[in-house]
Amino acid sequence: MAVAAATPANRPAPARAVLLFLTLLTTGCGTVHFDVPEGARVKLMEIDAPASVRVERTCWYALWGAKPLGDNHTASMIAENHLAEVRLHNQYSASDVIINTFTSIVSFSRRRIIVEGNTAAGATQ
Amino acid sequence: MTIRPAWALVLLSCTGCFSVDLYAPHGANVYLISAEKPVKVRRDLRTWYVVWGLVRLDNTMPDTVIAREQLTEVRVITVDTVPDALLGILYNVLIPIGLANQAMTIEGNRAAPTPVGTTIPANPPDTPPTRSPPGSPATGPAPPPPD
């Protein structure tokens, strides 16, 4: 007895459901706030300005990005490093993609926040 | 082992990388503000990437909006919403062309306007007047300063 190969038209419904589910998993959300501590006066640097400090933080989210599990603001990073001028990046790189592929199955995803800048002593005028 | 095309597309859709960069436009003095500070300007921006996020399509970053709106104080929120997820499904699975997008909200304030009554000198204070006094002979270009 010949068995016909599965085509998109006659693919079993569970396979399509799993495919759609996996697709939804890859579309995780995640909010990042680029801000500074209350009362701080922090200058925004130009793209090519030299920076002496570079700080990176991985921010994790649950429920596919809806619920941040840690601090997703840059204010604390700027305060901890006493930065007077900064340049900020929100990065979703290949390593994040690989990790999220597995962790998003249980709703967790991650993004990276990168802060570059100078302290008050090394700030450019 | 054979990987079906649809599953391969799902894997490809996982490879979307992108970066949102916040920096100041050239020559502008821009300061970051806290999350609590009231703002008067709010703009929503969506930037697009191709090849699953590897290449920026429109290269629209917050500095474009900062320069256009002449903001001197700014804060930015990068956010993914349900419409973004649907766009991701549309352009990476249903129409697998590797188009990705990132939404962001730019909030800030412009510089305070110059108060009414403030006079702005036409020339810097150390610039000599260019008009000749009445009755003086016509003069040509100013002679070069002595060495």
Question: How would you concisely characterize the structure shown here?
Answer:
The complex is a heterodimer of chains A (125) and B (147). By secondary structure, chain A is α+β, with helices and mostly antiparallel strands.
Tell me the layout of helices and strands.
The complex is a heterodimer of chains A (125) and B (147).
Chain A: H1 13-25, E1 32-34, E2 42-44, E3 53-62, E4 67-68, H2 75-80, E5 83-92, H3 94-103, E6 109-119
Parallel strand pairs in A: 2-5
Antiparallel strand pairs in A: 3-4, 3-6, 5-6
Chain B: H1 5-13, E1 18-22, E2 31-32, E3 41-50, E4 55-56, H2 62-69, E5 71-79, H3 82-94, E6 100-110
Parallel strand pairs in B: 2-5
Antiparallel strand pairs in B: 3-4, 3-6, 5-6
Structure description:
The complex is a heterodimer of chains A (125) and B (147). With 125 residues, chain A is of the alpha+beta class. Chain A has helices at 13-25, 75-80, 94-103; strands spanning 32-34, 42-44, 53-62, 67-68, 83-92, 109-119. The longest helix of chain A has 13 residues, at 13-25. The termini of chain A are far apart. With 147 residues, chain B is an alpha+beta fold. Chain B contains three helices and six strands. In chain B, strands 2-5-6-3-4 form a five-stranded mixed sheet. In chain B, helix 1 (5-13) crosses helix 3 (82-94). The termini of chain B are far apart. Residues 124-143 of chain B have low confidence and may be disordered. Chain A binds chain B through residues 8, 19, 22-24, 26-47, 65, 73, 75, 78, 86-94, 96-97, 100-101, and chain B through 6-7, 10, 13-26, 29-37, 53, 63, 74-81, 84-85, 88-89, 92-93. Strand 2 (42-44) of chain A pairs antiparallel with strand 2 (31-32) of chain B, so a sheet runs across the interface.
